[in-house]
């Protein structure tokens, strides 16, 4: 079996675990009225701030930014859910198995970017029009692709952080929250990236959300296909780099864990 | 009072060992960064008070909510719940003491938010009525502990509600007028908003910063009243739950 096929199988089995986990966590009712309701309230919270500023342009900006942000929040849950493996005592077994940890963990939390994509699309297409953000039917497929790209590429950022949190699982919620809040602050969600000092802008360019969000705003403003494709391309590149970094981090972790046996069976 | 103090100290010791339990100390400065940046970018200095104060109340609410959800269930998972319940100390007092500790920790967030606004944006939030401001913060943290004890009992009665724990954040931030004052919310929402102590806290904190504080005692009485209502309901509910599980012998299974 080739390495590629083997990796694909590992991701598939791991993703089956993710689906089971998601089903155990939510029913369709608790997801809709619990999770989705909470995220829509978050978007409304920021959108009303735009209205309170008496600026429809601000409200429009905040609705688009925070709607896309919802999938980022959910994708970053990979940091927390990866750490669950430690609590469940499966980490030493995973470290000992011949499978590469990166593919195990890539599949393990795939429920979050998928669910996050749905959440973001409901916010953009369902809540957006209430605040004056409308989309034509022709824009919807592009929007779906860009939101999915946002969720998956941010998931790769989360995977990188997850590799470190496995060694300090008590800090899982802090790392996850700080991760998405930094993105919320600097990636153009609430204010343009140009608002921040140049060095912050450089950091923002390394995060896929900056590019995908710019592309979504481009779609809303009927920008040219070339501009949008370029932004999406940068996001793909940034996401791939983060996945590569996550692979290196997980490999080092696996080697270190095998040598020192430092993966305990509990927190 | 000794039970309350011991529970208070125990929760603080627990927070020191598990950094995740005080994650708001890390997230509050970032929320401040986000909110103040929106106000500065929109050239709205009048928005500063809300931008600095909102993360404080958000931290208070989310930390108490998180603890309310975890408190009893973690004791049950560790196998310590039966022993705590068997002691002569009132369990509701233990719960209230622990929740007051986390509510107090959240008050540190004000200093953090103030520092972030000043160091990152040069925005200095001055407090026109310090006494009203401090009274409001203290009463709000006590009201939070009371409200959280009610939620804590509710989470025990309905373990499935834990999934919805996260849901109780942003809808309450909206209802509480944390960023957008209650007066600017739709008319039909305002009566509901006034049932949430956060709405009184956020209005009073803003008033104490920008002045005039107006009928501050009305707002303070509302915060205390809603907090006491939560604490009493929580104590009654916890008492009822304990009587039931003692009778049926299902404490570990509830």
* Oligomerization state: heterodimer
Cα-based radius of gyration of chain B, to the nearest Å: 19 Å
Q: Kindly, what is the distance between the CA atoms of the first and last residues of chain A, rounded to a whole number of angstroms? A: 36 Å
The run of helices and strands of chain B is HHHHHHHHHH
Distance linking N and C termini of chain B: 28 Å
Largest interface: A-B, 37 and 33 residues
Work out the number of β strands of chain A: 0
| Amount of helix of chain A | over 70%
Structural class of chain B, by secondary structure, is mainly alpha
Overall structural domain count of chain B: 1
Biggest sheet descriptor of chain A: none
**Can you tell me the residue ranges of chain B where pLDDT is under 50 for at least 5 consecutive residues?**
none
Shape assignment of chain B: globular
Brief summary:
The complex is a heterodimer of chains A (267) and B (254). Chain A is mainly alpha-helical. Chain A is built from 12 helices and no strands.
Task: Kindly list the characteristics that best describe this protein.
heterodimer; A: 267 residues; mainly alpha; B: 254 residues; 74% helix; 0% strand; ABC2_TM (chain B)
Protein model, in words:
The complex is a heterodimer of chains A (267) and B (254). In chain A, 78% of the residues lie in helices and 0% in strands. Chain A has 267 residues and is an all-alpha fold. In chain A, α1 runs parallel beside α6, α2 runs antiparallel to α3 and α8 packs antiparallel against α11. Chain A has one domain (3-260). Chain A contains twelve helices and no strands. The two termini of chain A are 36 Å apart. By secondary structure, chain B is an all-alpha fold. Chain B has one domain. In chain B, 74% of the residues lie in helices and 0% in strands. Chain B has ten helices and no strands. Chain B has helices at 2-17, 24-41, 48-78, 81-86, 91-121, 130-157, 170-175, 190-193, 197-210, 216-248. In chain B, α6 (130-157) runs antiparallel to α9. Chain B is globular. Chain B starts with a helix and ends in a 6-residue tail after the last helix. The relative contact order of chain B is 0.15. The mean pLDDT of chain B is 85. The chains are: A mainly alpha (267), B mainly alpha (254).
């Amino acid at each position: 079996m080739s390495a590629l096929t083997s990796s694909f199988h590992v991701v598939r089995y791991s993703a089956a675990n993710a689906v089971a986990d998601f089903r155990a966590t939510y029913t369709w009712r608790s997801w809709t009225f619990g999770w989705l309701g909470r995220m829509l309230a978050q978007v409304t919270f920021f959108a009303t701030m735009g209205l309170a500023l008496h600026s429809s342009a601000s409200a429009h900006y905040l609705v688009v930014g925070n709607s896309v942000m919802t999938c980022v929040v959910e994708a970053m849950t990979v940091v927390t859910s990866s750490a669950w493996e430690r609590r469940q005592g499966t980490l030493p077994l995973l470290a000992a198995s011949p499978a590469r940890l990166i593919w195990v963990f890539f599949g393990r939390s795939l429920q979050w970017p998928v669910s996050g994509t749905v959440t973001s699309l409901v916010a953009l297409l369902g809540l957006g029009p209430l605040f004056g953000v409308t989309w034509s039917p022709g824009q919807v497929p592009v929007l779906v692709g860009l939101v999915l790209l946002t969720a998956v590429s941010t998931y790769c950022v989360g995977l990188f952080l997850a590799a470190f949190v496995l060694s300090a699982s008590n800090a899982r919620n802090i790392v996850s929250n700080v991760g998405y809040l930094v993105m919320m602050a600097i990636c153009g969600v609430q204010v343009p990236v140009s608002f921040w000092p140049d060095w912050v802008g450089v950091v923002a360019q390394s995060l896929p959300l900056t590019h995908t969000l710019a592309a979504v705003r481009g779609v809303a403003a009927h920008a040219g296909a070339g501009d949008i494709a370029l932004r999406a391309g940068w996001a793909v590149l940034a996401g791939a780099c983060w996945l590569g970094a996550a692979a290196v981090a997980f490999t080092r972790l696996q080697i270190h864990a095998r040598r020192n046996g430092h993966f305990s069976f509990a927190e | 009072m000794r039970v309350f103090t011991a529970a208070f100290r125990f929760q603080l010791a627990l927070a020191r060992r598990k950094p995740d339990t005080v994650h708001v100390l890390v997230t509050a400065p970032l929320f401040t960064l986000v909110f103040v940046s929106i106000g500065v970018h929109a050239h709205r200095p009048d928005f500063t008070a809300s931008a600095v104060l909102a993360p404080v109340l958000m931290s208070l609410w989310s930390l108490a909510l998180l603890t309310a959800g975890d408190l009893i269930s973690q004791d049950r998972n560790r196998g310590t719940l039966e022993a705590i319940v068997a002691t002569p100390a009132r369990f509701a007092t233990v719960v209230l003491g622990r929740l007051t500790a986390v509510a107090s920790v959240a008050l540190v967030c004000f200093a953090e938010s103030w520092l972030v606004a000043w160091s990152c944006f040069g925005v200095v939030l001055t407090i026109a009525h310090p006494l009203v401001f401090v009274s409001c913060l203290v009463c709000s943290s006590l009201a939070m502990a009371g409200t959280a004890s009610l939620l804590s009992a509710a989470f025990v009665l309905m373990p499935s509600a834990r999934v919805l724990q996260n849901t109780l954040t942003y809808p309450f931030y909206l209802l509480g007028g944390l960023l957008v004052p209650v007066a600017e919310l739709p008319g039909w929402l305002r009566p509901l908003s006034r049932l949430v102590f956060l709405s009184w806290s956020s209005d009073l904190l803003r008033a104490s910063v920008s002045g005039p504080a107006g009928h501050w005692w009305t707002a303070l009485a509302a915060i205390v009243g809603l907090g006491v209502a939560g604490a009493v309901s929580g104590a009654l509910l916890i008492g009822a739950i304990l009587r039931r599980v003692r009778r049926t012998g299902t404490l570990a299974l509830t």
